[in-house]
Design brief:
There is one protein chain. By secondary structure, the chain is of the alpha/beta class. It is built from six helices and five strands; from the N terminus they run βαβαβαβαβαα. It has helices at about 15-30, 45-60, 75-80, 95-105, 120-130, 140-145, and strands spanning about 5-10, 35, 65-70, 90, 110. The protein has a five-stranded parallel β-sheet, sandwiched between helices. Strand 1 (about 5-10), helix 1 and strand 2 (about 35) form a beta-alpha-beta unit. Helix 4 (about 95-105) packs parallel to helix 5 (about 120-130). The radius of gyration is 15 Å and the shape is globular.
Length: about 150
């Protein structure tokens, strides 16, 4: 039985480049259309540059999903969530990955290069792409999150 294929944008800083590179190969082998925004080495770079590139692509519909990695996953997640229509989640397990898809309709997966091994990252990416949003009782909350930006005033 064939599985759906998706357009996936990936990005990482120096702290997540090894995970990103492994995921690029894994997702291409599974037949997905993959865009690797970088980085492509261990030299220190600013995570926000790569997080913004991936988030913009997901936000404007160029990509179905995004996957980001940095040392902890937190910086990438903060960066991605600044973009309207992006629902990024920093997760640590396959179970959390499935929950954030089912309950939050996350469209960007954020991983920590220091806390996630390659084998687990591949399982998490597969779970992210094969788990759907439940909708139903969760749709109301999803719609409220997608509403106008909140002010701090």
């Amino acid at each position: 039985m064939s599985h759906p294929t998706f357009r996936i944008a990936l990005g990482a800083d120096h702290g997540g480049v090894e995970l990103k590179d492994a995921l690029v190969a894994h997702l291409k082998a599974a037949g997905h259309e993959v865009r690797d925004f970088g980085t492509h080495g261990k030299a220190s770079v600013d995570y926000a540059d790569y997080g913004n590139d991936v988030a913009r692509g997901v936000a404007d519909g160029s990509y179905d999903y995004g996957i980001l990695a940095c040392t902890s996953g937190v910086g990438m997640c903060i960066t991605a969530n600044r973009h309207r229509h992006v629902r990024a989640a920093n997760v640590r397990s396959v179970e959390e990955t499935q929950i954030t898809r089912r309950h939050n309709d996350a469209n960007v997966l954020c991983l920590g290069g220091k806390t996630t091994d390659v084998a687990t990252a591949m399982l998490m990416a597969d779970a992210f792409l094969t788990t759907g949003f439940e909708g139903g009782r969760l749709q109301h909350c999803h719609d409220r999150v997608a509403g106008p930006a909140l002010s701090s005033g």
